[in-house]
Design a protein that fits this description.
alpha/beta, 16 helices, 27% helix, 8-stranded parallel barrel, Rossmann fold, 9-stranded mixed β-sheet, 35 strands, Immunoglobulin-like, TIM Barrel
Amino acid sequence: MTITRAAAEPHTDTEPWWRSPFRMYQTNLREVDAGMDVDAVVDAIQDYGANAWLLNGGGILSFYPTELPFQTRNPFLKERESGDFVGDALAAAKARHMRVLARMDFSKVSARVASEHPDWLFVGPDGSKQIYNGLVSVCPSAGYYQQAAFEVLTEFATRYAVDGFFFNWFSFNEVDYSRAYRGVCHCSSCLAGFKEFSEGAELPSGRGDPGYEQWRRYADSVISDLTGRFRQHIHELLPEAGLILGERADIVFHEANSALGREFWPHATSEAVSISKAVRPNVPVLVNSAVFVDMPYRYAPIQPEHFAHYTIQAIARGAIPSAYTMGTPQATPYTNMALAADIMRMHRAHEDVYGALRPAADILLAAELRLATESGVQEYRGLHEALQRAHLPFDVAPLSAIADATRSGRYVLAVIPDLGVAVEDSTVDALDAFVQAGGTVITTGGAFFDGDRPRLTGSPALRRTAWTKAESELRNSYVANIEPGYADGYRRLTPVAGSYHYIEPHPDAETKLIYLSQAPYGPPELCHGTFPVDYAGWAERAVGAGRVVLVPWGVGETARAFGTGGIGTWFAEIVAGLLPERRIEVRNLPESAEVIIGESAGRLVVHLLNFTGVRHNSIGPEVPIRGVEVLVHGATSAMSLVSGSALEAVRDDGSLIVAVPEFGLFEALIFEAGEM
């Protein structure tokens, strides 16, 4: 891929430096790398297109001459004349006007420190410690995180004026490096903390136990509190430094990686960025992309196109791109980084665009993937694929924060899959208000039912009379249009799987599909007898200035299970028909591609992502896409950020039609508009 590089416009923002676009390179260092040639590393980072270096600071191993008794100094520091890797690296980077951030890992301590501070340690439900490669895991609720880590930050920040910090593995360690499940921590701090938090409930042992979800909320509260305290402490020590961590940090962190044995989801990076940006568009999100295949195979490079897709999806959603390698670029040269380097340099050339990029889709898709049931995940992904393949641009937001997203004024339609998670009253109230103000809400399956009572005020269901998830009860059942002249009187039979919810429609509701009962399943001679049942496959109701649509079955889960295009296409047609207008239309684009839109200083930014190279567990070389046309209403001119050149366009009734002759992994277009 050849990219023309234009000069970036200078930034004059008075906000913190991390509010301006930057590009990061993380050298995840081994203890033997402490004697590295820091100037050579800075050269490699700049050549990659990055202008920030994330390097090892302290925690498990201090890459500086710490004086704290509960820290372990890297023995290989003696190879440096100064004895101080961090000091030398900071000087070399600052001489090139490069930002430096410190990676701290407080998740584990040495055996010596563990023996001196047993009250800091993770304790399994069976009383065992968590020991890996001689290191012992600690608990975020105990003293190392709660007190000692603040002393480490004080020592470090008073010596080194770094630009930011990142905390690795900042969590309760239910799973170890071997992916063995170790359960819920039962240290004395957790026992006391959870008892107070839960008002006396018994601490669960692990997933599936009574009280586990309450423990997750307790764990989240501990992490959130620590994040806020770390952030405040860092800002008191180094006011200009930012913290990369969770939702309460200055910069939200996401690691893009693959994992052997995990279901491959090619849209994971874009999804993760959107989940943050749809709710808080002004908070930076950093995507740290692992260059290797999996944690146990850190020297096996991932497919070049796969690695490049991490960066493409990050910048398309307005995130900060970053690369994550093991060791130094000289010691562990990865041969798969050239494609991503081109994209990093393109981002550098167009900082004015990417620095102001914000979400601009009309459609919002809700997710809550950490808490969703397996069927809920499949329901969500099926709807995600349906919208993506129909080239309907959408943003993703967590269901728990859907209220903030709908109040933003950006969205006209919200899709809420049946995720199998509890929905707060505040979320229901926000969606009711969204509908009253003119928005459209589409729910699937049993989302927003409390028993048999619909929770949305404008629901097209008066009540739910029954429901089923039993495969035996759903097999060979369908929803369909009923029209004369077709075989058996039905048109476009769509299979039903996952779940079906029998509803009594509200008197004001309109139903457009009908449920067909099961036909016998067995020898073909007897496979007949399907007949319409008086239950809807789709119901909608106008309320206030908006409307609520209920698809009372698992349409996304069905689409994922069957793998046929018609089911998702049917759903996407429903969505498209409910949009008041479409700001952008893309023609001649294969369904494997995705359209992501954003807005930057009043300009529409369109990214076309090519997924033709998707494999079983990776992304390989793509098939070039040719002959695409992009129609944008109200646009006056268009430019390709990839080539840096203007595009041929024709005007048609207030719209601009741009021809995109060919693109490979992606295309990035920016449209100037007199009115959008």
